[in-house]
Specification:
Among the domains are: 75 residues, Thrombin, subunit H, CATH 2.40.10.10; 94 residues, Trypsin-like serine proteases (Thrombin, subunit H, Beta Barrel). The protein contains 3 helices and 14 strands. It has 279 residues and is an alpha+beta fold. It is rod-shaped. A 7-stranded antiparallel beta sheet has the order 5-4-1-2-3-7-6, with helices on one face. The protein has a 6-stranded antiparallel beta barrel with strand order 9-10-11-14-13-12. Helix content is 39%, strand content 28%.
Length: 279
């Protein structure tokens, strides 16, 4: 039976409603999808920002920890130096320094010397060797080793010796940086008492004691016969002078040749010996 007009109209309206509904639903779904995409993108951005911020804070924390660690290490070193400068604890410096000190013996006397290289070069006072023909170096471990005279500087009273073997040596400091009032220790063999230690302060620098050379440290650290050629050591364990002599008619008035003059003398001796070997 053919549809009547109003039936066609009703079917057309229903179809239109369905189409409109589908369009509306499509629009709504599309809007929801778009919104979710935007929200998801925003969320990703926030996560990335949080991650970047977190990483930045972690980096900052790591740097702070490293700085704190470095600061603690520096503080501990400063505390050790302060303790040493206050006279509370020179023991660690003495223990390490004694390993680089030797007794120097000849047939006619004895003095002190100290190693300046790990392969056995020794510095002492030239006057310690006067009158002797054979030289023996005795280490802190009581090993006696024949020493060879490489050369000497009579004006500065410096002699350079060489022994065979490997050793712990002392480090030379910069005597231009020393200050009056600094605490120092002298290591030597006064009156045959091996590896004795005395403590004092620097009373003066660049003294013109002999030869009109402003090259001597004045110290009240006790120096006696046998100390000659031994090191004068600062609170960092560096050699700032070589103990030469004390004034016989006074107490607590000793003198040490400054380390920069020692280095110059040793270099000149070594260069002269090398030039003679090449000729």
């Amino acid at each position: 039976m053919p549809l009547r007009r109003h039936h066609k109209w009703m079917i057309g309206c229903a179809s239109s409603i369905v189409v409109i509904a589908l369009i509306v639903i499509g629009i709504l779904l599309n809007g929801i999808i778009v919104k979710q995409s935007v929200d998801y993108a925003n969320l990703n951005n926030k996560i990335n920002e949080l991650q970047a911020d977190t990483q930045s804070k972690l980096n900052e924390l790591t740097e702070n920890l490293m700085e704190t660690k470095t600061s603690v290490a520096e503080s501990q070193e400063e505390i050790s130096l302060l303790k040493a400068s206050a006279g509370e604890d020179f023991s660690g410096i003495i223990e390490n320094s004694v390993k680089g000190v030797v007794t120097i013996k000849t047939e006619v006397g004895q003095g002190t010397g100290f190693l300046i290289t790990d392969d056995g070069y020794i510095v002492t006072n030239a006057h310690v060797l006067v009158g002797g023909h054979s030289i023996t170096a005795i280490t802190s471990e009581q090993n006696s080793i024949n020493a060879e005279l490489i050369g000497y500087d009579g004006e500065l009273d410096i002699a350079l010796l060489k022994i065979s073997g490997d050793y712990e040596h002392l480090t030379m400091g910069d005597s231009d940086e020393i200050q009056i009032g600094e605490k120092v220790i002298a290591i030597g063999n006064p009156l045959g008492l091996q590896f004795s230690v005395s403590q004092g302060i620097i009373s003066g620098v660049h003294r013109e004691v002999i030869n009109d050379i402003p090259a001597y440290i004045q110290t009240d650290a006790a120096l006696n016969p046998g100390n000659s050629g031994g090191p004068l050591i600062d609170i960092e364990g560096k050699v700032i002078g070589i103990n030469n002599f004390k004034l016989s008619d006074s107490e607590s008035l000793g003198f040490a040749l400054e380390s920069n003059y020692i280095k110059s003398a040793v270099n000149n001796i070594a260069e002269e010996e090398l030039s003679q070997m090449l000729i």
